[in-house]
Design brief:
By secondary structure, the chain is α/β, with parallel strands linked by helices. It is built from 6 helices and 15 strands. It is globular.
């Protein structure tokens, strides 16, 4: 996402921080995680903060001290395979952390070994940066992050709008292609925990998509909404936290520490809120803030332009 962030985050911070109320919208304790996430407040903060969702599901955050993206990764264990969702930003060794978590799991369960499958919610650099560390790892498959690689590996075939099941051994996850933010974006639903790992399409932050891809992004949200109607989704866990506790306020860029972050988890009702927000645009994309996210359509090249109405500078969305 760095390809346009540096030009626009300062602008959006000025617009939204100055116009929002300071009401504390999200001050409840997490019902999933026992600790607040590390957010760069200590210079000695470890490169990764690990918390269990349950004994077979782990969330991992890369420190703000190593990258301003501070992405989240997830490790999901089945009986035969472990699924790693995203590998973060390059420059720190995510493999060491993942190997440690796998060793701990094997010791806890009494198993001798387990295969590892490395996948990505999408192909932006803050989600694939640690891939090379796994390329030589035994009993490991690293899935490419192009649309072709994703569809071929998981077998979407000629039904890209349909969910696909992936068996980890006594635990099955369902995969949904959700393009718009990125052509190969994919979400992972885990029925065991009721969690939808939603990547960069849904998270407490700026939901980026190119102005000219509003229909594609909207179609993906509609697909998720339909999926939610027939599946027991309890929470959505995305790729980042960019919102503050205060309603509608995002963190500014360039800071290596934060205080007062929004919770990582979002309720399933957020899908309807996003769907309604997109419908209100009526095909005319505009940067729009909500309590727990910002719909953030952007031109391909935003240089010299300013939100919120920059998509409508001309009809080509360029």
């Amino acid at each position: 996402m760095n390809y346009f962030k540096s030009t626009i985050i300062s602008l959006i911070t000025i617009i939204f921080v100055s116009s929002c109320e300071t009401e504390d919208f999200n001050n409840s304790q997490s019902t999933i995680f026992s600790q607040s996430w590390n957010s760069g407040r200590s210079a000695k903060e470890p490169a990764f903060h690990v918390q269990q969702i349950d004994t077979n599901t782990i969330a991992i955050r890369q420190s703000l001290r190593t990258t301003l993206e501070a992405p989240f990764m997830y490790l999901v264990f089945g009986k035969k395979k472990a699924l790693l969702i995203d590998t973060g930003v390059e420059g720190v060794n995510i493999r060491v952390e993942i190997d440690k978590q796998i060793e701990n799991w094997l010791a806890r369960t009494g198993q001798n070994s387990i295969s590892l499958v490395v996948m990505h919610t999408h192909g932006h650099g803050d989600h694939v940066g640690g891939d090379t560390a796994f390329e030589s790892r035994p009993d490991t498959v690293v899935i490419g992050h192009s649309l072709e690689s994703v569809t071929n590996f998981f077998g979407f075939g000629n039904k890209p709008t349909q969910p696909i099941s992936f068996n980890l051994g006594n635990r099955t996850v369902e995969l949904l292609l959700t393009p718009g933010h990125h052509p190969s974006h994919i979400m992972v639903f885990d029925e065991t925990t009721g969690i939808l790992f939603s990547g960069d399409v849904i998270y407490p932050g700026r939901l980026y998509f190119q102005c000219g891809r509003i229909q594609e992004f909207t179609s993906s949200i509609n697909r998720i909404a339909s999926f939610a109607n027939t599946h027991n989704i309890k929470w959505l866990l995305g790729g980042h936290i960019e919102m503050k506790k205060q309603a509608g306020i995002t963190f500014s860029s360039g800071k290596i520490s934060r205080t007062g972050e929004h919770l990582l988890e979002l309720p399933v009702s957020i899908i309807t809120e996003i769907k309604n927000g997109l419908n209100e645009m009526a095909g005319e994309p505009r940067v729009t803030q909500f309590n727990e996210f910002v719909l953030f359509p952007h031109p391909i090249n935003p240089a010299g332009m300013s939100p919120p109405d920059w998509c409508n500078v001309d009809s080509k969305y360029e």
